[in-house]
Amino acid sequence: MSDSSNRQIVIFDTTLRDGEQSPGASMNLAEKMEVAQTLVELGVDVIEAGFPIASPGDFEAVTEIAKNIRGSVICGLSRCRNADIDRAWEAVQHAQQPRIHVFLATSAIHREHKLNMGKDEIIARAVEGVSRAASYCPNVEFSPEDAARTEHDFLCRVVEATIDAGATTVNIPDTVGYATPSEMHKVISLLRNRVPNIDKTVLSVHCHNDLGMAVANSLAAVEAGAGQVECTINGIGERAGNCSLEEVVMALRTRNDFFKADTRIATQRLVLASRLVSAVTGIQVQRNKAIVGQNAFAHEAGIHQDGMLKERTTYEIMRPEDVGCAKTDLVLGKHSGRAALADRAKDLGYDLSGEQLVTVFEQFKVLADKKKDIYDGDITSLIEQEILAVNELWSFSSYRVDTGTDRTPHVTLAIGRGQEQFSTEMACGDGPIDAIFLAIEKLTAVPMVCKDFQVHSVTVGNDAQGEVLVEVEHNDRIYRGRGVSTDSVEASAKAFLSAVNRIAAVTNGSATNNTADRQ
Ligand code: KIV
Ligand code: ZN
Question: Does any ligand 1 atom lie closer than 6 A to the CB of residue 206?
Answer without folding.
Answer: yes
